[in-house]
Amino acid sequence: MTVHLRREADLGRIVLENPPANTLTRPDFLDAGELQAFLSDPGLRGVIVCGAGRHFCGGADIPALRAQASDPDAFADALSRGKALLRILADAPVPVVAEIRGQCLGAGLEIALRCHARIAADGAMFGFPESTLGVLPGFGGTVADGDRVERRVRMDLMLTGRLVGADEAHALGLVDRVVPGGQVAKAAGEHLRTWIDGRSPGLVHGLLEVLNNGRRLDRDEALRRETEVFLRLAREANP
Amino acid sequence: MSGAPLTLERDGDVGVLFLDAPPRNVMGEPFFDALAAMTRDVLPGLDVAGLVVRGRGRHFSAGADVPRLCRLAASRAPDTLDVLAANSAAFTSLERLPYPTVAAIDGVCLGSGLELALACRWRIATPSALFASPEAEFGLIPGCGGSVRLPERIGTGAALDLFLSARHLDAEEAFRLGLVDALLPRADLGPAASRLVRRLALQEGRAA
Q: Looking at chain B, which residue has its C-alpha nearest residue A208?
């Protein structure tokens, strides 16, 4: 698995590549410092996550992971690093959209669920097939934060191991928009643009800061910081 | 409008707090002062099964008086942060009342109006209710806990979408996203809110 971090003007693109289905050959599929640096660039306004070729990500490469699990301590460390990567993605200082075609399974779905929105091609497939393999999602998917709807859907998919198509995923609230296969890249870019066009970088960063605080900080502290960011933005907007 | 911007009435054993600046129940400085006083001095000790929060007339609230907030921010007065923190703290005090609270929403529920509804434990609405968080149109984020409370209800991604797009949500979509807990016909909104408060109070062992 190679992960490409690309810049296209003010947007970033994270491309998962390991043909054909972009399976993860190790839990720590990317260097945390590299991802952090990529996301913190001050000129970055939004990020799209996608897979190379016909699929988003088919999940873990099970034989490769089984081999690594023979050294349990090293594997546990690698899993922790993998979870840290997903947390860095979820805490990005700019909006992140998943552009999904083909398989979006297991660890791939966990990555997609850490994005702020999911735009899917009509042929995309979603699920947590781990339970059919006798394991559970290992990237924090069993405990990741999310709203009630998302938690319920995630539990359903994890326990049954069933796969759902794009339309059902949309009906379940897992996917924000379904478009014909050829249009998914364009639709994902437009989705990001409707959020950031006309909004100052300071506003978008400030909003992401308070949203991320809400998940990471003590609640009183998160509320206190919201007031500070509000005043900062109000003064920027009314000099 | 010379009357109090917030008035407390009773429906039997249920308190009913009206945002009382019709038609749109805009929240100006008097509203925030009244909410702070109410949540500090009156509501905590109130002998009720619970509290309904609603707007007088056809709307819940069109939100804060934004030009006033902008003047306040631009004034560079040294105590501005304290004033804003006190506004936000009043919403948190409402949230922490020791009995069930239900926002009963008809018409518009925008900005700080939405934040007030989010500081209640439950939200019920009519099918014609309309929700939005338009702060971004003024270069702002919510300032009374909305950016913490909305994602708790509907998830970070959906909250980000509402904040950045500033788009309007109809009642149906608000219900689907989990922002609103139940939809009711307008004629039944008030009675249903009181019934819900009483049922929640019973569940919590607070039979009045």
A: B160
